[in-house]
Amino acid sequence: MATSTAVSSPGKVLLAGGYLVLDPAYSGVVVSTSSRFYTVIAPLPHPPRAGADAGPIQIRVRSPQFLEATWLYFVEFDGPDAVRVEPVADVAGSKNKFVHLALQRTLTLAAELKSVGTLQNTLAHGLDITIVGDNDFYSQRAQLKAHNLPATLGSLSKLPVFNKTGVRLQDVHKTGLGSSAALITSLVSGLLLHLNVIPADSFATEGGTAAASEGRKLAHNLAQYVHCLAQGKVGSGFDVSAAVFGSQLYTRFDPAVLEPLMNDSGSNLPLNPIITPSNSAWDYRAEPFKLPPQTRLMLADVDAGSDTPSLVGKVLKWRKENSEDAKALWDTIDGLNQALSKTLLRLSELAAENPTAYRKAVKYISTIQSVQWLANPNIAGNDNHSDLRVVIEAFIEAHNLSEGIRENMRTMGERAGVPIEPPEQTALVDACVSVAGVIGGGVPGAGGYDAIWLLVCDPANCPPEELPSSRVERVWSTYTGKLDVSPLLASESVAKGVHVEALDAVPGLAEVVRAQ
Question: What is the value of pTM for the model shown?
Answer without folding.
Answer: 0.95
